[in-house]
């Protein structure tokens, strides 16, 4: 039976790479995969899922107004779909997460969502909140902090490279604006308003 999956992590954990690999696995077996990505994130060009290691794939765009269930159902009626993959799924709305669960339950198509769990304030994105609540399978993709611990938090940096925890939830950016860290160094960086504690932490923790 089809299931709804949520693969979550901090930034730079290989979410897009994992999505592209999953999509390729279906295509290699002669199956059709449908890939979506958020319209708001155009760092690598509109309608494109790209990974840091150079892999990429065309993708359909979604925004807050996209009717995912009806769009996927129409695609499925025209040509059978064997898997739906959604990148940047933290930007989904509550209604869209429900729609994806309907794709699983009513159309029997597996849906694999990949996204950030929390924002730079340590708070859940809406899409992530409901995926954590409703997904059949939760899978954490891990990356590491400078100290060697698991990085579970994301710091946002200002124009001077200093961390801060106020402002709009969604500001698109890459390594120049965000850095993934462990909880300990997230708290230290916010309290100190500096990355000094992080830059001084280079001893791996086993």
Automatic annotation (TrEMBL):
- Name the residues annotated as catalytic in the UniProt entry: 88 (proton acceptor)
Answer whether the UniProt record assigns the keyword Hydrolase to this protein: no
**This protein's UniProt keywords:** ATP-binding, Cytoplasm, DNA synthesis, Kinase, Metal-binding, Nucleotide-binding, Transferase, Zinc
The source's domain of life comes to: Bacteria
Q: Chief subcellular site?
A: cytoplasm
Q: Which reaction does it catalyse?
A: thymidine + ATP = dTMP + ADP + H(+)
Please give the InterPro entries that the UniProt record associates with this protein: P-loop_NTPase (IPR027417), Thymidine_kinase (IPR001267), Thymidine_kinase_CS (IPR020633)
- Quote the record's binding site residues for Zn(2+): 145, 147, 182, 185
Query: What EC number(s) does the entry state?
Result: 2.7.1.21
Q: By its UniProt entry, which Pfam families does this protein fall under? A: TK
What positions does the entry give for ATP binding? 9-16, 87-90
* One example GO MF annotation: thymidine kinase activity
Subcellular location field = Cytoplasm
Indicate the quaternary assembly. Answer: Homotetramer.
Q: What is the protein name stated in its UniProt record?
A: Thymidine kinase
Protein's gene:
tdk
